[in-house]
Amino acid sequence: MNTAVSVPNNTMPAPITAFDIMMNPEMMSRFEKLAETMASSKFSVPKHLQNNPSDCLAVIMQSVQWQMDPFAVAQKTHQINGTLGYEAQLVNAVIINRAPVTGRLQFEWYGDWAKINGKEDKSWDKGVKVWATLKGETTPREITLSMGQVGPVRNSPLWLADPRQQLAYLAIKRWSRLYTPDVILGVYTPDEIVEREEVDVTPAQSQVKKHQGAGGLKAQMAEREQQQEATVIDMESQAHDSAPYDVDGAIDHIKKLNTIAELKEFSKAIPSDIAEDQQAKIKETYSTQYRFVQVLDGIEAAKSLEALDGVMAKSFEPHSANFNDPQTNAINLSYEQKQAALTA
Fold first, then answer.
1. Where are the alpha helices (DSSP H) in the chain?
2. Model pTM greater than 0.90?
3. What angle do CA 57, 63, 68 make, to 5 degrees?
């Protein structure tokens, strides 16, 4: 069964970016004033934006990039676990209208959808295929998403009332995050906002009290050895040379490491007594590279299309905003090659 969502063919003005806004003092000033006005509203914005000009400004800047009414967009936002989320209906409308595709975004459902409980169903024989052709290409890009790949977060009541529609909504988002990630970069719906796993680069505090004599010292040494084996990135506890640690060199080296083993081994040489801001830079680069390698390893290890899409859903999508363009392109290329190999 095929369904197509029409994409307007009218020529749209060139989109403005957040960088364009921030580099235009006059425009930024106008938006800041509008944010103050929006934040003072009692009825035209939801409660989490009232008296909150900073988040109102974020909504305004996002709305301008989407060429939408900021007050209308504000009504489609939610605050969940400290993160600003956007309703699935809005996000899908943005993708359909802003993605650089020709023709229509198309769907094909498969499986028996009679008497399905969308909140509980985890079967692999019911799903939807979504495809569209990017501008300048002739072969459509597609993904297939089954109910078994949805994951446990199904908060919307539409998972019960209309599970096919909800699955299509989710499939559109995953299609966009894979093939046109710039369209909804950093934008998530409530079901996607989950607690993200942190890669900890801070040395764990010793649980053994100090100054307990030789026995206490031995216990601390044993605990330190255990920490070195357990932590993902271990800040080595040793004295520095007089020369400062080359943070930029370390960051450049991390970006060149292509295996988890190499990353873990390099982490052992990172000292613990460098400035917090330098640790933060290393942590950010390390975490992103670690997740990047994890995605590539997962794609390579996938033995089926279901497993392949599962890797993208669990390892790529939650962190897609953190990957740079070369990393995203490498992941997309690896995905397409693996998909071709599995369907050959």
1. 18-22, 25-39, 53-66, 70-74, 88-98, 158-161, 163-179, 213-230, 247-256, 260-267, 276-301, 305-311, 325-343
2. no
3. 140
Domain spans, the chain: 2-75, 94-195+302-343, 213-295
For the stretch 76-84, contacts whose Cβ atoms lie closer than 8 Å and that sit 24 or more positions apart, written own/partner, are: 77/46, 77/48, 77/49, 78/46, 78/48, 78/190, 79/48, 80/190, 80/193, 81/193, 81/195, 83/188, 83/193, 84/48, 84/55, 84/58, 84/59
* Residue 290 identity (one-letter amino acid): Y
Q: Exposed (0-12), middle (13-18) or buried (19+): which is 77, by Cβ within 10 Å?
A: buried
pLDDT bin (cut points 50, 70, 90) of residue 235 is very low
Torsion of CA 159, 81, 89, 34, to 10 degrees: 160
**Highest mean pLDDT (candidates 62-71, 80-89, 144-153):** 62-71
Least reliable range by pLDDT among 66-70, 123-127, 169-173, 180-184: 180-184
